[in-house]
Amino acid sequence: MAPREGRGLRVRVLMEPRHGARYDDVLALARATEDAGFEAFFRSDHLLGVDPSDPEYLPTDCWTTLAGLARETGRVRLGSLVTAGTFRPPGLLAAIVATADEMSGGRVELGIGTGWYGREHEAFGIDFPSTGQRFDRFEEVLAVLTGLWTGEPGADPGFSFTGTHFRVEDNRTPPRTAQHPHPPIIIGGAGPKRTPAIAARYAAEFNGALGGDLGERYAIFGRACEAIGRDPAEPRYSAVLPVACGTDRAEIDRRAAVIGSEFMRSNAAIGTPARLTDGIGELAEIGADTVYLHVYDIHDLDQIALIGAEVLPHVQGAARHETGVTS
């Protein structure tokens, strides 16, 4: 399954720091991403790391930092992969994302999921319902988000929603987004039923998650689109690729050692720029038109520059974007 006709391949940077990050560290990586010619910079939305007892982990709020980046970058698109739908009430999240979108001049995207990291929720006092309840809540979160974003200011009556978990009453002042009808929504995962069905209804981009049969997940999502009368060629199809890229064995091994877990390493592109170029191409052949390069060492800006210089020009369909003016 080759990339869809007329649609260029997007290569993005996804930051998930192993030990957390201070804002200045996130900003430096986002600016390096922009300088290297990447199309977008995304970050995870986590309050704990892979090891929940790691005393070095420094949590930072995803959307607070993205709002800061909105004012301190000039070109790259900015987003979350993915925001936990359990972390923030949907009405508040609608306002937060709309604010960041306006601050960025319309460069924000919302990757969102059900939430999965139970210990993380326990550590920060956030409710963590059962799997079925999280999916039920997730559908309501998306209904509220899109309902508020497409609501007409001053409408009489305003937007209302009554669900099992959330209720909105007569909102006549909905959050205004810079993008219309609203920022792109990204939904993904490995589940074969509810995830693709929900994504078919709400997502501008379906992310096939990591590991397993990516092509089959794309096919299931495509069938879910067809089931509701949506053209499966209309949404984007994305994949995540952990990366350790270097010019010699010592550099490669050092970067590979930082990758968060054995599962991530087993699904990573570890090697030279040519190896990473091939890895991106393999995902494109499966059907991905958007690839997120998953990086863990947020201080290793040289790796970002290397990929920008030695990989982006050789990835079919991917354009190297010139640096914009930053504030």
From TrEMBL:
The Luciferase-like domain sits at 16-256
Positions the record marks as coiled coil are: none
User: Which InterPro entries does its entry note?
Assistant: F420_OxRdatse_Rv1855c_pred, Luciferase-like_dom, Luciferase-like_sf, SsuD_RutA_monooxygenase
Highest taxon of source: Bacteria
**Keyword line:** Flavoprotein, FMN, Monooxygenase, Oxidoreductase
Q: Name one Pfam family in it.
A: Bac_luciferase
User: Has keyword Amino-acid biosynthesis?
Assistant: no
Q: Which SUPFAM superfamilies match?
A: Bacterial luciferase-like (SSF51679)
Q: What is this protein called?
A: LLM class F420-dependent oxidoreductase
